[in-house]
Structure formats: structure tokens, C-alpha cells
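Tutorial sheet, problem 5. The two components below are modelled jointly, 501 residues in total.
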Amino acid sequence: MKEEKIKQNNSEESDLAITKRSKDYSQWYLDVIEAGKLADNSPVRGCMVIRPNGYAIWENMQKVMDKMFKETGVVNAYFPLFIPISFLNKEAKHVEGFAKECAVVTHHRLELDADGKLQPAAKLDEPLIVRPTSETIMYDTYSRWINSYRDLPLLINQWANIVRWEMRTRPFLRTMEFLWQEGHTAHGTNEEADERTLQMVNVYKKFCEEYMAIPVIAGMKTESEKFAGAVYTTCIEAMMQDGKSLQAGTSHMLGQNFAKAFEVKFLDQTGERQYVWQTSWGVSTRLIGALIMVHSDDNGLVLPPKLAPTPVVLVPIWSSEEEKAKVLPVASTIAKSISEKLNINIKVDDREMRPGPKFYEWEKMGVPLRLELGPKDLASNCVVAVRRDNGEKEKVDQDKIIEYIPKALQNIQDSLFNKALKFQKEKTKKVDFYDEFKKIMDGDGGFVLAHWCGNARCEEQVKEETKATIACVPFDQKKEKGKCIYCGEESEGRVIFAKAY
RNA sequence: CGGGGUGUGGCGCAGUUGGCUAGCGCGCGUCGUUCGGGACGACGAGGUCGCCUGUUCAAAUCAGGUCACCCCGACCA
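Model answer (C-alpha cells):
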């Protein structure tokens, strides 16, 4: 019975794909970042609590992405958390897709009842929805902001929190409340909106690969997987250590669907009134989940240097007060020089603890590079540098440390990416027979490149029989004649099938 | 919402044919010895056994109810 219980609670199917993980460390990520963990018995347990450590990673992501967005002409703004229910009713298709799992505000006061308990009072005439996404409330405003072709393109991004009352939550990947950015643009032509859709999915790809060190496949969602209100949806898909695919970001071409629902019109150069063409695109704190699942190991988080809040930690080592007095000044001099010359956030861990536990703690936190400075190093004018990604130790001259660190960090960044890319490539297979397809999906999983005729029914059947869905139709799909993996009809090229989160 | 499971110090758990003062490991505090990869000893703090009702001389343990969480499924812009 006990074994059964453990099996249930540690079910590999359901857990975050990190690695096998011993039981002691099975929840290390709660110490480091924490998601979906409130006090026991809390009805909002599926909401997220982000510890300072985790939030600092998100802040770094925000900083980098914000800059990338602005380089493409996007500006930031903020819109209301509450959306009148009538707004959601305006776009019928949009509603079909997601109107179900929302938090609804129906009252605006609390009153004490006869038992001295607070009860909702003062019912609202029109219920308000806590935003599950902001298309409707933003485009209602856009309809007033946009009059002329001179007002276009309108390129706005919002950093916000979002609530989706999911039936089942998973730490980091699907929380009831999450943080994200959502970009919403309006354009004068179809082509321009097409370009923007593609441009932003490429920004996401660049961000994931260059900063998060996560290789992704960019492509199109199929009709059945696209955002309900969109003409088409593009996305980036990343492979996790368990071979499942995670949608890391999406960019939607909305066409004129929302413009028609919200009367977003402009007067063009010829004096004619036209509906605008729109796009929307977003990434969320789910990226923190991706970061954990792609790089982490049994000892905890592994952070890419470019996003690590603390890329370097210096652990001074001493065994007596005299040694401590000798080591600490040198440690702080080195740290100061690194911080000033390289503009790197470095921590000196001078707590009264034995060194071993300190090492493990910083490993758990994912700090990319650890420097050790003890009596032996003082004698030889060295520091010992230890890489988080592969555990390699190296003695470095104290004089050379300023040149060493940037190289080492770049090295770690690159090898994290290359390791993830190698893994992704190894787990991506071209498959032409359905038997083989099923075998892979029953086994280790991964990406399967297979032919698909384009018929939603085949997609549906494959999902039912193997749990695999079409992650995307890759942009770099080669034209190649073949036969659909399911029905055998003619196909123009291969798509990516995978089990998804 | 359907199926299964679990609620006992901060965390992980044992105890459940009703019976002694509710235990163990980790963590936490103080002191000492330690200190270059998760140290050791001594002492110590910390619990209305999820909640309610019932049965009983006696309930963590049995019964009924209730609340919450976890897992599988359905759902997932």
C-alpha cells in the first residue's frame, strides 16, 4: 500500500520533467522558485507563489524581451484587469474557444451577516470577467484610438497577470494565475500584419535560443490547435527532458476578426473606411517552467548565465579565525573587482557554515559559476572555479580572473544550448510507418517528423490512439512528397508530432 | 465534472484488530568538537492527530457527515 502511494505521488507521467530525481530532492524547485504552492487547504492553491529567486529570473527575462520588443517599435501600456462580460460576447469564435474557465466577479461589497461572517453584497448589473487575455478590452479601446491610417501601425505590449480557472493545474506550466506579456498590434494591411506575426515569433525564438539556451522549433499550429479567434497561429515548441513538447510562445495573425467585432476602423489614404488587420503574441511565466525542465538535474536548477540573477558566487573557505581574517579581505577585493570591471552581480557567501552545504545550496539555486577561495589558494594566488553545468573544476590565477569569467560564462551558455540541441536532435526522428510511430510514443517519446495529409480527422485519431498531437508545422518544412502516417493519402511535407504539456 | 487516494510539529512519514505521557527522520535553537563536497555529540523549542457529530469507561484509531489536497481522465486561447 505504501509503495502504491509513493508510485502515485511520484508518477512520472504527471511530474515536471526534470530528471529521475531522488526523493529528497523531489521538490527542490519549491525551495528555489516555488509555484502553485500556497498553504495547505488553500482554495487558491493552483495560483502561483514566486519566491524572490524565481522572480529575479522573470525580471531578467522581462528586461531582455522588453528591449527586443522596443527595438521593433513596440511600446508598453496597461489595460484593466476586469472585462465586462458583454465584451467577450462580441467575438463569437473567440468565446467558443475559451469562455468557459474564467473567474467571474458578481459583487462589489462585503457585508456582515447575522452570524458575523462576511458575505458578498451589492450585486453588479453586469458581471466582470477577470481577464483570461486582453484582446477584447484592448480592442474596444483601439476602436477609439484609431481613426486614420496615420494612427497605424499601433504597436502595444502589456505586462500583466492573467487568470484562467483551469480544472487541473501544474506547477509553472498551468497555474490559475500567471504573469505574461501580451502584444497587440493593429495594421493598415494584411501583409503588414502577416509580417508582424512572423517577426514576433522570431523574436521569441531568438530570445529562447540566445538567452534561455533552449532550442525551439518555430512553425504553424494546425487549424484545431490554433487560437480560436485567429486566422492562423504561429508558435515555438521546445523539447523537455522527458521528450514532451512545450509550447513556449505564440504569435497570432488575427486578420480582421476582432476588428469587425469591435469596430476598429481607419480612414485610408483614398478616404475609404477599412477594418484594421491585427496580431497578438505572448509568452508567460511558463518559460520559467521550460527553463527548469530543459536544463535542471538532480542537484537542482541550472541557469543560463545570461539570465542568472547571480551568475557568479564566491565561497571563501576557512577553518580558524586567523584564516578567516586572511581570506575574507582577499575575497571581497576579488568580488569588488569582478563586479566593477565586468558589471556582474556576484555574491560573497561569508556565512558561518561549513563549505560543503554552501556548495550544494548554490548548486540547487543554479548559479552558473562558483569560485572557491581558501588558504591553499591564498598561498598559490589562485581561485578554484567550478562550473554548475558539468561540475568541472579549474584553478585560475587571481590576476587572470577578470579575463577568465566572461569566457567561462559564455562557454557555459553555449554548452547548455548545445547540450539541449543535441538532445533535441537525438530525440527527433523521421517516421514513415504508424507502427513505429506508436512504438515511439509508447516509449521514450520525442519529436516525430511524419507526413500528414492535412485532414483534422487524422490528427484527431492519432491523438486518441497515441496521445500525440501536432506540435507544429515547421517553417523550415521541406517540400517532400509522401503519404499521411495515418490514412496514407498524399502529403506535401512532414510535421512534428509529440506528446505535449 | 467522473474514477482512485491522502489528511498526525516547518517538511517527509510511522502509529489505525479502540488502551499507558502521540513517536521517528530531516529541518530549527544553544553549547562544544569540526570545517577544501551535504560532520558529530549533548541539551532544547515545536502537535487542539483536517473539521463536526455519534458509539464507548476510553477515539489519531470505529461509524456518519463535511472540508481540503494529491493522482488518473475530461478540459487547456
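Marking note: Confidence is low (pLDDT under 50) at residues 1-26 of chain A. Full credit if you identified this.
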